[in-house]
Design a protein that fits this description.
By secondary structure, the chain is of the alpha/beta class. It is 49% helix and 7% strand.
C-alpha cells in the first residue's frame, strides 16, 4: 500500500513536471514568435529608414510642389535632401544659412524682406563641412546669393576640432550619390530592430492603424507605401511623412529649410534652470567639449573663414557668422565654472579679436537672455525654436539698419 502511494506521488510529480515543461515551451515559443514578428517587421521598416535616392527625390519634389513639411530618411543625414531643395530654391534666394541642427530654428521670416534665405543647416554638421559648403555656394551660386550666414557652435567645441576642411559639391549628382549609401550590416540592422525606439515606434504604428478605421490599409501604407498620405499640420501647412517614425506629427523641414522639431516639447522654466546648471557640470557635454582645447579655435578654420569673407566682399557679397543661442543661464553658468570658464572666455576673446581684424561680424547669441529669450523657446540646452531666433535677429537687424554694427563680436547694445 505504501509503495503504491509512493508511486502515485512520483507519477503526479512527473506529470506536473511535464506539464510545467510544456507550459515553459509554449511560453517560450509564443515569446519567440512575437520576437520574430517584431524583428521581421522592424527589419522591413529599417530598410526603408535607411533612405534611398528615390525617397530623397520624391520628398524634394513633393515639397517643391506643395511647400509642405517633410523629410526623407534617415533624419541623421540631411545633406542630399537639403542640396536638392537648395538647388530648387536658388532662383528665388539671395541668402543661405549654413550650420548644424542648432541653427535649424532660424526661419526665413526672421530676416528683412530684401533677404530671402534657405536654411541649409544639417544634423551634426561641423565647421569642417559648413565652410566648404559656403565656399562652393559662393563659387557657383555667387551671382545670385549675396548673404552667407554661418554658425559657430562653440559650446559643443566645433571651432576647436582639428584638421583642415576638404571640399564639398552641392550638385544633384553629389546629393543622389550620397543618398545611395551602402546598406547597414545584418548585425547592425538586427540591433536596430531590437532597440527600444524601434520597438516603441512599431507599437505606435500598430495603435495608429487600429484607430484609423481601416487597419489593414493603414498597416499596408506604413510598411509598403513610399510615404504616408498627405495631411495637415495644426497651422494648416500640408505634410507628408517619408520616414516610418514620428508619423502624423509634422516632423521634418519646412519649405524654408527650418525644422519643426515636432518630436520634442518646449522646456519649462524650472527645467530650464536645471538644464543650465547641469550643462555647466564637469561631466556635461559642454564642459567636455570645451575643456580639452581650452576654447582655442583651430587656426585652419579661421583662415578658411577669413578667405571666404574676403572673396565674398570682392564679389559684393557678405559673410556673417553667428553663435547660436543657448538656453538662458547656460553660458553664464559655464563662464562661472572653474573647469569651463577659462575656455568660454578664450573662445569669445579669440573670435572677437580675429573677427575685428578680419572685418567679419559675429552675432553672439550664446547668452540668449540678453535678447529676451525664455526657456520655453528651446527644445533643449542648445536648440532654439524660431521665436528665440526671431528675437536675436530682430535686435541685430535693428542695429544693422542704424549703422551701429561693427566687425567683431556683436551683442545687443554694442555700437
Amino acid at each position: 500500500m505504501h509503495d503504491a502511494t509512493t508511486m502515485r506521488e512520483v507519477a503526479g510529480v512527473t506529470a506536473a513536471a511535464a506539464a510545467g515543461r510544456r507550459y515553459v515551451l509554449v511560453f517560450l515559443g509564443a515569446l519567440g514568435a512575437a520576437l520574430a514578428l517584431v524583428v521581421g517587421l522592424n527589419l522591413l521598416l529599417g530598410t526603408r529608414a535607411e533612405g534611398s535616392p528615390g525617397a530623397v527625390t520624391s520628398a524634394a519634389a513633393w515639397q517643391r510642389a506643395t511647400r509642405g513639411v517633410t523629410y526623407p530618411p534617415p533624419i541623421t543625414a540631411n545633406r542630399p535632401f537639403k542640396i536638392l531643395r537648395l538647388i530648387d530654391r536658388l532662383p528665388e534666394l539671395n541668402g543661405i544659412v549654413f550650420g548644424a541642427s542648432s541653427s535649424m530654428g532660424m526661419t526665413a521670416d526672421a530676416f528683412p524682406g530684401e533677404i530671402t534665405v534657405y536654411n541649409f543647416a544639417q544634423t551634426a554638421n561641423p565647421l569642417h563641412a559648413t565652410i566648404p559648403e559656403a565656399e562652393y555656394a559662393l563659387a557657383h551660386f555667387g551671382g545670385r546669393v549675396k548673404w552667407y550666414f554661418i554658425a559657430i557652435d562653440w559650446a559643443v567645441g566645433m571651432p576647436s576640432q582639428p584638421g583642415t576642411p576638404g571640399a564639398i559639391a552641392l550638385t544633384r549628382e553629389a546629393a543622389l550619390a550620397a543618398a545611395a549609401r551602402p546598406p547597414e550590416s545584418l548585425a547592425g540592422r538586427l540591433r536596430e530592430a531590437l532597440s527600444w525606439p524601434r520597438v516603441r515606434n512599431l507599437g505606435v504604428l500598430a495603435a495608429d492603424a487600429l484607430r484609423s478605421g481601416d487597419p489593414l490599409r493603414a498597416l499596408r501604407d506604413a510598411f509598403f507605401a513610399e510615404s504616408s498620405a498627405d495631411y495637415r499640420c495644426p497651422d494648416g501647412t500640408p505634410a507628408r511623412d517619408y520616414d516610418t517614425i514620428n508619423r502624423g506629427i509634422c516632423a521634418g523641414f519646412r519649405y524654408d529649410g527650418s525644422a519643426t522639431f515636432a518630436d520634442g516639447k518646449p522646456v519649462e522654466a524650472a527645467r530650464g534652470r536645471e538644464l543650465a546648471r547641469a550643462g555647466a557640470a564637469l561631466s556635461s557635454r559642454y564642459s567636455r567639449a570645451l575643456a580639452p582645447h581650452g576654447g582655442e579655435p583651430n587656426p585652419a578654420l579661421l583662415a578658411r573663414l577669413a578667405a571666404l569673407a574676403n572673396r565674398a566682399r570682392a564679389s559684393g557679397a557678405r559673410v556673417i557668422l553667428f553663435m547660436p543661442p543657448l538656453i538662458p543661464g547656460l553660458e553664464r553658468e559655464l563662464a562661472a565654472s572653474a573647469h569651463a570658464g577659462p575656455a568660454v572666455r578664450r573662445v569669445k576673446s579669440a573670435f572677437a579679436g580675429w573677427a575685428a581684424a578680419a572685418g567679419i561680424v559675429v552675432i553672439d547669441a550664446g547668452a540668449s537672455e540678453r535678447y529676451g529669450c525664455a526657456s520655453g523657446e528651446f527644445l533643449d540646452e542648445h536648440h532654439a525654436y524660431p521665436p528665440c531666433y526671431r528675437k536675436v535677429l530682430e535686435a541685430f537687424w535693428r542695429a544693422w539698419a542704424a549703422g551701429t554694427v561693427r566687425p567683431g563680436l556683436w551683442r545687443p547694445g554694442d555700437s
